[in-house]
Amino acid sequence: MSRQPAARHTVRMMTQETTLKRHATTCRRLAVALLALLCSSCTGLALSGVSGSGDFAEGIPATLPDLSQTGDGTYEGAYTIGVPPGVIVMSRTWEVSVTVAGGKMADIKVTTPESFPDKQMIDTMKARMLDEPQSLDVDAFSGATWSSKAFCKAVENALDD
User: DSSP letter at 82?
Assistant: First the structure.
């Protein structure tokens, strides 16, 4: 008779131990999920793996104003982009000078930043903007969406008066 209570006690302890392990596993999973959520909100990344920052930057349109009535000359403009915390950009502020000749953009020069890591990207974007039909609605570069959009907005601001 003394063995039955011991057996029940052992089963009860095993059940409690299993329950504690399940709770611990659930708590670890919850902690990992909360950490992932915290990290994603700090970096601007969505949990689905899609860049939330790029999607937001797509909502910053740049439109080429009608230059038919714009006199020939060089126009200066700037744009400072406000980015979510944790987003890395080449430059938050872009300043440009845009030369207009014959009602069209003839040249675009970057005055700020004085140097940036991907000159080829900016040269490609300038070429796309200056090609016929001229447009500021050019594709942003993957991995440089914020900088691409800020550059386009600086050109728009130079011509928008």
Answer: -
Q: What is the mean pLDDT of residues 106-118?
A: 86
Are the CB atoms for 137 and 151 separated by under 8 Å? no
Which run of H or of E encompasses 56? helix 52-57
Task: Look at the alpha carbons of 66, 149, 85, 46 in this order and tell me if their dihedral is positive or negative.
Answer: positive
Q: What is the C-alpha to C-alpha distance for residues 72 and 67, in angstroms, rounded to an integer?
A: 10
Q: Is the pTM of this model over 0.85?
A: no
DSSP structure class, residue 110: E
Answer whether 104's CB lies under 8 Å from 134's CB: yes
Three-class secondary structure of residue 120 per DSSP: helix
Phi, psi (degrees; rounded to nearest 5) at 122: -65, -40
- Are the CB atoms for 100 and 70 separated by under 8 Å? yes
- Kindly report the length of the chain: 161
